[in-house]
Amino acid sequence: MKINSNEGTLGGSVIQINDNGNDQSILWVQHTPIAEGQYQPKPVLLRLIINTPLVQDLAIVNGTAIIAKVEINSFQAKGNNASKLTITEYVVIDVLSVSNGGESIANEFLLGGTVGKVEKNPNNAWMTVSLALQKSKNDPTVWVRISVHEKFATKAFKYGINKGDNLLIKAKVQTHSYEDRNQNRVVSNDFKIDRVLMLECRNRNQQANPTNTPAPSQSQYGYDMPTDQSMPAPGDYSVAPTDMYHELPSN
């Protein structure tokens, strides 16, 4: 069975609008997730691509709260010192709501595709799983990175997870801003699993987690949400190289 899903619902407050050319605009949207236990999450910073006429028709300005149905897209860009960078963006398919006096923290994705690399971090209990999303054979492949705690993996992937497996999950995106070794300003995009809907292992005719079985909560695993410093180091990025600094929010 082939699993294909690349869709989500995102929301937040618009903090900057830039022209992207070809009648498209970049909306920099930000929201602060609800705190979980002792962990105080940092704001999620998102790059949304939307048709400029729609921005004008809906009177979207800085401060507008927006909720939109999106698809994930990524492309290569040149950074400092001939570095290559991957920019991750969220293409607006449909605007679900706009408000100039409200607030939005929508953040939900249904992601399905083929597992690429599975890497364990030797310095902590986290692992990263790369997932290839392709809605149809004519669409380009979009890679996303999923951060998974080993205790979660033990429960959710009881038969293991390997390259070539098919995975379907509900997830939320998390972002982390920093400057890399080439002095590129980077916004990494990682996905945190809320629920594993299906795992079809390439080398065995079994599902590792039955459909409709929810993944246990963080507290059931006996660990708290990590601080930003303990999260695994990103391997690919959503970035703004030097020649794109003008697109970044100034604050």
UniProtKB/TrEMBL annotation:
GO MF annotation terms: single-stranded DNA binding
Keyword annotations from UniProtKB, A to Z: DNA-binding
InterPro entries to which the protein is assigned, alphabetical: NA-bd_OB-fold (IPR012340), Primosome_PriB/ssb (IPR000424)
Annotated segments matching region Disordered: 204-251
Domain of life of the native organism: Bacteria
SUPFAM superfamilies: Nucleic acid-binding proteins
Chain intervals with Polar residues compositional bias: 204-221
Listed name of the protein: Single-stranded DNA-binding protein
Species, as recorded: Photobacterium phosphoreum
